[in-house]
């Protein structure tokens, strides 16, 4: 990590006729330790943290996954227009199945590093030691966090689904989404925890990152983007 | 023209239109903005294959064409041939094809 000064302490003593061949080498995996420290810190803060194994994630396909460590940005996503607040473990299984199992352009794991459900629980997605797949051609140094619901206003977007939701909104069948209060406070707390471990200087909604709006994206929806702006204001982090 | 002959003619014309539609319509699936999108296009050459494959149509970082697996490269070159009329399988031609792929949203 770029902003860490790592120090190691040790002590030793000499023995008569001793030689260095008897020395035991101990390697420390700082990245794995950091992953665990983040988990511990979230739990210490009184939040619920669910590791991959506890939501029955598939094993990743590590051969084609890339290491990525010096994270400086956070990308906030919503789960998409077909999602609503619900059982997060099942939703994550669905997302991972779809992302890894699709016939075209399949991923080697779920793309997001973390997911937050509507009740404020934090779920581990892709191991933080690997580069995410959440912001097209802009994933280096970016931690991807998905909020497990739809945060797009009715009519947001340019496709048939947007037209239908606009119509449903106009006749009162579809309400503007709102970020649940528990999720709102949880995401703020979680970001502050991530900042203890990484030198984060930027937070943005998916479509705010370079090149994304040109592709016509709506993620994280207008409600999601309002949350991101609030987070920028409260944390002092910059926009992408 | 008697009614039976008319019906046959209509059936033959309908079958011809259906075959032409299949031969000249293709689609590619993408996964962007957290949804699966299906994009249709007119094929430059007739083929019965309708579904094509773009290995870059996701939220990951694009890898260079020469780092694609041979199966992915073959499927991508098929897509380039039928969507853009690029029949050259060389890396440079496929990179140029990649640059021509429009946004999927």
Quick structural overview:
Chain A has helices at 30-44, 88-101, 160-170, 181-197, 221-235, and strands at residues 49-50, 73-78, 114-116, 122-124, 142-147, 202-205. Chain A is α/β, with parallel strands linked by helices and 240 residues long.
Descriptive terms for the model:
A: 240 residues, alpha/beta, 6-stranded mixed β-sheet, 6 strands, 30% helix, 10% strand, B: 105 residues, alpha+beta
Summarize the topology.
The complex is a heterodimer of chains A (240) and B (105).
Chain A (H helix, E strand, L loop, with lengths): L29 H15 L4 E2 L22 E6 L9 H14 L12 E3 L5 E3 L17 E6 L12 H11 L10 H17 L4 E4 L15 H15 L5
Chain B lengths: L2 H22 E8 L2 E8 L8 E2 L17 H15 L6 H10 L5
Helix pairs in contact in B: 2-3
Rg calculated over all Cα atoms of chain A: 21 Å
Distance between the termini of chain A: 21 Å
- Beta-strand portion of chain A reads 5-15%
Which strand order does the major sheet of chain B show? Answer: 2-1-3
| Rough outline of chain A | elongated
Please tell me about this protein's structure.
The complex is a heterodimer of chains A (240) and B (105). Chain A is built from five helices and six strands. Chain A is of the alpha/beta class. A six-stranded mixed beta sheet of chain A has the order 1-4-3-5-2-6, with helices on both faces. In chain A, helix 1 runs antiparallel to helix 4. The radius of gyration of chain A is 21 Å and the shape is elongated. Chain B is α+β, with helices and mostly antiparallel strands and 105 residues long. Chain B is built from three helices and three strands; from the N terminus they run H-E-E-E-H-H. Chain B has helices at residues 3-24, 70-84, 91-100, and strands spanning 25-32, 35-42, 51-52. The mean pLDDT of chain B is 91. Chains A and B meet through loops of A and strand 1 of B.
